[in-house]
Every structure is written in structure tokens, then in C-alpha cells.
Amino acid sequence: MRIGIDVGGTKIEAVALAAGGAEQLRLRVPTPRGDYAATLQVIASLVGAIEQQIGCAGSVGVGIPGTISPATGLVKNANSTWLNGRSLDRDLESLLSRPVRIANDANCFAVSEAVDGAGADAGVVFGVILGTGVGGGVAIARQPRIGANAIAGEWGHNPLPWPTREESAGPPCYCGRSGCIETFLSGPGFARDFAAASGHHATPPQIIALATAGDTDALAAIDRYQHRLARALATVINLLDPDVIVLGGGMSKVDSLYQAVPRLWERWVFSDAVVTPLRRNRHGDASGVRGAAWLCGRPPGAPPARRASRSTGAEGAPRSTPGTQHSGGGSTSSWCRRRSRAKRSNRWTMWSAMPSAR
Ligand SMILES: [Zn+2]
Predict the structure, then answer these.
(1) What are the GO MF terms of this UniProt record (predicted)?
(2) Ligand 1 centroid from CA 175, angstroms
């Protein structure tokens, strides 16, 4: 059994996957915002609750809205700021008494869609989350590409390419710069653009509904959004040339993107023809937590793990390799023992009162 944990800004979700990827159980609790110790306890409790209900110990992978810095071993870049500067992997290993793998949530999304989602037929998947923020992740042969600095795929804080005169200054971004892709392509960025152009404030779902009803301001906002997404993804194709690009997050629900954007990006991609498919995710909101579960062991269809190499940055290398976030050894199967053999702890008992979303 593989257990995946997705640490979000408002909720922490856990899933248990059987060997073939079938979902056995999913739990969801509110994130104890600002409280690191409580966050650790919630994660441990979710793992305990799953193992208690299923009766089997599992491997644990965790997706976070940041990454573990290879330079310090501490969390960086998390907009859930109470995680930053913390030794999350080691603390969880200590709490759970087993190896724990941690990856950025966009990487988890890419892995999930690469293993058995919209990119299951592709060797290289670029996964994009267009939500409250904008993140990207790369999965190669169904494993996350982490990178020497653990930021592979972090394209949301590149500047919006080929900006128009109106776009060139760009809105300020929380990262300290202005005009980041995220400031245009996130849900809040889309709503801000609509409000600036129309004078009306609306949420992204409301704007999408207005566009469906034929509202000209909403249609124009979606048109600008599509042009910006096409330019931003053209730079990804020029750099990485992935076999498929998969969209996730709230803005991935805009149906017109999948036809319009590939038609638009041709003018900015340095190629005579562009065959890259742009696809909607298959696993929806569950993709992040499923990808976290797949961090452990070899997913179905993945090639055999390679020996440690400083150049790959792919999962499967030992902890000492920069760019990996593998915390210790141990195969998935070795963690899927009968619960009677697993280490028991009284801390699981609090779980009888914990709420579940499903
Ligand atoms: Zn930024």
C-alpha cells in the first residue's frame, strides 16, 4: 500500500493506493495554518488512521507547496510559510519511524498524470497547476524531475513572455518581482485582469459562467488569458519539448483552452510544426495526493531505478544526491506488512474523532 499526503494551504489530504493504483481510502482535514508542530501531528494522524482502517502499513510520500532545499535540507519556497526553514522530511521520518519522500505539489501532479492519468502514454510530461498560484512540474518516465536546485518546472515565476505594452510592467508578485506568469495565469490573476478591464469584480467561476452566457467582457478576458497561456507554454516547449502538457487547477476547467491555446502557441514555438498535445487532467483534485503516493517505489510501467547519479535528479537516488528528496531506503513492499507487525502507537487513537471528507 502507498500512502500519499498533500499538504495544502487550507486542507491536508491523504490517500491510500493499492499496488495497481486503485484508491482504497481518502481522508481530508483542515490545515492547522501557521502551526508547524500541529501540521506534523495531523500528517502522522492521517497515516495512522489509514493504516488502522486498512490494516496494512504503507510507504509515505508527501506533496508540499514548496520543496526541500538541497543546499540546506530545509523547506523553501512554500507559500504555506510556516513550513519554510523546517526539516519536514526528517521530522516526519522521526514521527512515522520510516522513510518519507517529499516533493513539490506540482511535481506530484505531473507524476500522477504521468503514471495513470492524461499523460500515461507519454515519456515526458509537463504538468501545470493553474490555481490560486501557478506551478509546473516535470515527470520523466513517470518519476519527478527534481533538479539541482529542486526547482525544476517552476516556471510560474518567470516573466510573462512577449508582453504587450500594457502587460510589460506587470502586476507585483509575492515573490518580490513583477509581471510573473503567475500574476496573469492564476485564478486571482484572471479575476484581477477581468476587473481591471470591465470594472466588475467576479470570481473565476463567475467569469467563466458569464463567458458561457456570451458576456463580451468575460469572453475578452478568456481570450487574453488564452494568449498569455499560449506564450507562457511556448517557452516550455522551446526549452523542454515535453511529449504532453497536462493542465490542472481551477482554470483547467475552461473548456476552450484545449483548442485555442495549441492553435495560438504555434507562432511562438521555434518549430515548423507543433504536435504537442494539451490535455485536461484525468484525476482532478485528487492528482496531487495520488502523485505523492506514487513517489515511493516504482510506479507501474516505470523503468527500473537507476543507480545514484548527480546528473539526473530523478527519484531513486540516495539522500546524498543533490536534487533528490528521497529520505532513506526501504521498498514499498517492505512497508506493506500486516498492521499486526507494524509499530503501533497511542497517537493513532485520536483519529476516531477526526473528520473525513469522504
Ligand atoms: Zn513571482
Answers:
(1) hexokinase activity
(2) 4
